Amino acid sequence: MVEDPDRERLKQLEERLSEVKGRGAKPVRPANGLNQGEAAWRMVIELVAGMGLGLAIGYGLDTLFGTKPVLIVIFSLLGFAAGIKTMLGTAKHMRLGQGTDDPGQGPDDGKKG
């Protein structure tokens, strides 16, 4: 039987293909370690946590002082504002591509000068 001359070339091609496939297998992650979906959920959780804390504090103070809807409304609005502020800090943190997980840590925070 006659040996196929292209057999060696096919073997080399398969080796090169396996090398290329092995190199491209790593998923690329952003500098801050969060992909877009994780970052979106993080921001939603920050907003809901701010609202929840505001409602809880308002409800507790209303129960304590007997002023039922007044402090719930005030503290829920304050919690909403705090959640928005935290979300904006996270968005700024992601835009700058910082490596830390603390959105309050900006490029100049913690430096004397």
Automatic annotation (TrEMBL):
Feature: compositional bias, Low complexity: 97-106
Membrane spanning stretches: 39-58, 70-88
Classification via Pfam families: ATPase_gene1
Start and end residues of each stretch annotated as Disordered: 93-113
This protein's record includes keyword Acyltransferase: no
Keywords: Hydrogen ion transport, Ion transport, Membrane, Transmembrane, Transmembrane helix, Transport
Family to which the UniProt record says this protein belongs: Belongs to the bacterial AtpI family.
Task of the protein: A possible function for this protein is to guide the assembly of the membrane sector of the ATPase enzyme complex.
Record's protein name: ATP synthase protein I
